[in-house]
Amino acid sequence: MANILVCVANKETVPVLINMGLKLQQKEPGELFVLHVTNQDFSRFPQHIDYLYNVCREYNASFGIIKSNNVVDAIKSYVKEHEIDTVVLGKASDITKTKSKTNQLQQSFVDDIQFCIVDIPKESDYNIAVQIR
């Protein structure tokens, strides 16, 4: 049994990332978690939170949201607390690769955590029907 964490930052990438989490869950059953980390007040974007909550409920995933100025530390704590085995993240663009949260997170783990880095379609491709499952 493997616990899978899907880290989401914006609404447009959610279908692609959760779809990957679901595919991994089919291969190795376990609990699916979806996490959004922000440094902003949750009340500033209620539609985004509602959307994430509803998607998670539809696919029987646990939804978490953390307010933190340090995304990497927040994710690391969540991984430890929920005994996560695999973390699903969006791939950083070439421009920001060395400073990306994805890169920082991968480098900060010394535990036996698997990472699944997902290519995210260009913004113009978001309107193409991305089906979850």
Short descriptors:
Rossmann fold, 5 strands, 133 residues, disordered C terminus
Q: Can you describe this structure?
A:
It is globular, with a radius of gyration of 14 Å. It has a five-stranded parallel beta sheet with strand order 3-2-1-4-5, with helices on both faces. α3 crosses α4 (101-108). Residues 124-133 have low confidence and may be disordered. The protein is an alpha/beta fold. The two termini are 20 Å apart. It has helices spanning 14-27, 46-58, 71-81, 101-108; strands at 4-8, 32-38, 62-67, 86-90, 114-118. The chain has one domain (4-125): 3-Layer(aba) Sandwich (Rossmann fold). The protein has four helices and five strands, in the order βαβαβαβαβ.
Q: Nutshell version of this structure?
A:
By secondary structure, the protein is an alpha/beta fold. 35% of the residues lie in helices and 21% in strands.
C-alpha geometry: globular
Number of domains: 1
* CATH domain topology: Rossmann fold
CATH top level class name: Alpha Beta
Number of strands: 5
Please compute the radius of gyration using only Cα atoms: 14 Å
State the share of residues found in helices, binned by percent: 25-40%
List SSEs in N-to-C order. Answer: EHEHEHEHE
| Measured distance between first and last alpha carbons | 20 Å
In what range is the share of β-strand residues? 15-25%
In the sheet with the most strands, the strands line up as 3-2-1-4-5
Please state the average pLDDT score.
82
Biggest β-sheet description: 5 strands, parallel
The CATH superfamily bears the name HUPs
CATH architecture: 3-Layer(aba) Sandwich
Alpha-beta content class: alpha/beta
